[in-house]
Amino acid sequence: MEGVESPVTNEQSRRAEARVIVMRSAPRVLEVRTQGYITRVELLRALDDAEALLAEHPDIDTMFWNTLQHDGHEPGNTNLGMVFHRRHAARFQRAASLTHSAPMAALSNIGRALFPDLAISVFAKRDEAVAWLTRGHSQHGGRRTRAA
To answer: Does residue 86 contact residue 120 with C-beta atoms inside 8 Å?
Structure first.
């Protein structure tokens, strides 16, 4: 039939376009950007990249999950993200999620329950998220004893 994609073709194209990018997008900000449907293997590779970036930049103390182009993920990926945050609980002061997805935004509630000392916020605009993540660094030297 013309104009109708088969589910297999659609799934294959989604996975072909999927990627996770890890970067230091602003001073003191570790950004993980997801695009497409993210597999466990892709997320594990990205978290390894994040570990290397954290070792290289000891000043990073905020986490930015950019999921605007996120189309879903394999079961267990949320847990992998939570384990990563737990490993770095003393380091991260704030975490932001950039999303237009209600289910992705709802994950922040799990984070708030598991990490009461971590300030977590959800944003729909990138510039607002980055401004919130970097707010107060110049006044406080970047590190705070409590989450703001």
So the answer is: no
